[in-house]
Specification:
N-terminal domain of MutM-like DNA repair proteins; globular; 10 strands; 6 helices; alpha+beta; DNA-binding; 2 domains; Helicase, Ruva Protein, domain 3; 4-stranded antiparallel β-sheet
Length: 271
Amino acid sequence: MPELPEVETTRRGVEPHLLDRSIVGVVVRDGRLRWPVPGDLPGLLTGRRIAAVRRRAKYLLFDCGGGHLIVHLGMTGSLRLLEAGVPPAPHDHVDIVLDDGRALRFRDPRRFGAILWTARPPGEHVLLQGLGPEPLDGAFDGGYLHGLSRGRTAPVKAFIMDGRVVVGVGNIYANEALFAAGIRPQRAAGQISALRYQRLAVAIKAVLERAIAHGGTTLRDFVDSTGKPGYFRHELQVYGRGGEACPGCGRALREVRLGQRSTVYCAQCQR
DNA sequence: CAACGGACCTGCCTGC
DNA sequence: TGCAGGCAGGTCCGTT
């Protein structure tokens, strides 16, 4: 599921309900996530007050004062805020129970997500080290992409999906941004001009911001903190539309596999 | 380093 | 109807 817009939608949904709430209990029904949930997570969290909910890349960071809970939603994860007494469904692996009786519930059918704890500044955690800039920050622009890409032979789509280059751009939005910028996904990253990278950086920012405004994209699993899907799916120009008419020129969109990922583009509009 | 394939895991859809 | 195979929003890890 979650690329940056879905994670940010989740963050915005849960934050107002968590700020200054205290954690009174933690229920781990299945701790077998991408990495095992720390066995002492209930002990680590119980009694702590949540001071902030931040996001770095696709990680949610819950500032608990004296430590941070790190949550990643993987491919199929979601976080919902539930009233007391809602019985758990399959794949509802972890509940964090708050002092108002409600619970933050983590669901993740494929268990590619993660729930970790760090007592250090979260940016020092091994998973957050070496990450590239946030795409919506000013430091991320066409000049940055152009400079970093010189000499690279990998396809530009793989380049912008590499978290060391820029974070938060997953398969859906990489396809969408490349279409908006008129760049063919297979083109070697190192042979794209500065001007075209400028267009690409603008396109990445625009598509992510629009997706956030629509509450993210739901293909199957993603729901926001209230359990509702995101509505950006209806705005997608190319992802999931292989064989359909290009919104720009009307020719059939092509669908290929690039780096084992479904890739859709218009051979006419994207060069 | 950079690039690439495989791995992790469950559910859903397609085609035989 | 049943079953095998392929595919899905991520990203780490090992090999070349």
